[in-house]
Write a structure and sequence with these properties.
Helices cover 58% and strands 13% of the residues. The protein is an alpha+beta fold. The radius of gyration is 63 Å and the shape is rod-shaped. The longest helix is centred in the middle third of the chain and has 81 residues, at 287-367. A hairpin with a 5-residue loop joins strand 1 and strand 2 (189-195).
Amino acid sequence: MESCDCVETHWPADGLLVYQYISDFLIAIAYFSIPLELIYFVQKSSFFPYRWVLIQFSAFIILCGATHLINLWTFSLHSKTVAIVMTIAKVSTAAVSCVTALMLVHIIPDLLSVKTRESFLKNKAEELDREMGLIIKQEETSRHVRMLTHEIRSTLDRHTILRTTLVELGRTLDLEECALWMPSQRGLNLQLSHTLSNLIPVGSSVPSNLPVINEVFSRAEAIHIPHTCPLASIRPVPGRYISPEVVAVRVPLLHLSNFHINNWPELSAKSYAVMVLVLNGIRKWREHELELVEVVVDQVAVALSHAAILEESVLSHDQLIQQNGVLDLARQEAEMAIRARNDFLAVMNQEMRTPMHAIISLCSVLLEAELTPEQRIMIETILKSSNVLVTLINDVLDLSRLEDGSLSLEAEIFNLQATFREVVELIKPIASVKKLSLTLTMALDTPVYATGDEKRLMQIILIILGNAVKFTKEGYVAIEASVAKPDYIRGCPPSECYPQSADGHFYLRVQVQNVIII
């Protein structure tokens, strides 16, 4: 029978066993160190779920380590006890590993849900971070608004308010240019009144009916506008190749008529100015910066309204002072007029009435002497004329009473027909000089006696008759007295000169006419 090589020949395994021995020893050390590290982690951790699973996993690792450690004695001849211990260790390791695997099947979904909750909490944390960032931005915006508002409202001069606004906005937002376009008096154009860096020539004007301007006027918030539009046509900056971002916002110009108080009508339409803001460099406008601009514009509108009210108050105060000066001057002139009138009345009282009393006294003395009839008539005429003149002087002296309405008419019984005859006798000497004749006609219904102010009636008739003689060159002057009929009174317009008639009262009708004889 021939030999074959079907069975491998024995080869020495001592070299490989050494490597296996060292490897099992290192694996056992690693298995025993892992539970110690897990226990240290659990003790240091404030919260760790599924501790019992960790205990099972630690037991599984320890048993695995024990199996590799016991396996070190199986590389050489060993007793039956070592084999039994090795078998028990492997069975225990298998049992613990199966239980741990089954537990992991139930724990993995919970761990995945924990992962989901962790992702949810992470998203919530990111949202809170964004909200905190927004709150910080709002606080920063509020701080800038308070600072700008304080700077703006520190004065009530409109030019100072606008200049301060441009400077503070430029410093806060790092602006390259900030310009304010004010409406013209007629509202047809917008004129550049204030600039920050003078990149746009002051005094430039653009029509108010441009589409971009109408869009700015129609929007309450700041809007982006092209840098090439007339409102933002700044001088080119050397070395810049990227166009800056430009926004524009309307600035309400409030007047007193815009405040509806007690349903007052709006006397004038609302007008707007335009503020143009140009960013410096390639930076983009951010949302909170636009909100800052809008809030500052509202504060500027309020400050400008306060300044306008103050200017109108100052103007009204100046006008009031001017009017008071005019009234004071008028008062001084009135006082001077009163003093002049008092001086005139004093002169009348001392320089005219005293000589007239002397004339009346001399005429009374002459009437007691022996006179011819013609002389007596002349003296009596002088005496009557003097009495009339004294009455006129007394009336002039009573002018102050006439002005304040305290002058009253006398009510005494007198001879009415005799009064007319005395007036004719007084005028006859003047008429004879002009070769005029006087005729007096008394109607039959004219009463002889009446109650009233004889002196005032004589003055009136004397003035009327004297004017008739004065303006008549030839012929005669006729005077006729009668009681006015009711039809005649009814046709007269009602006034204070025609009071209501009553029992015992009558209206005296006096007609004076000049007749020229051809």
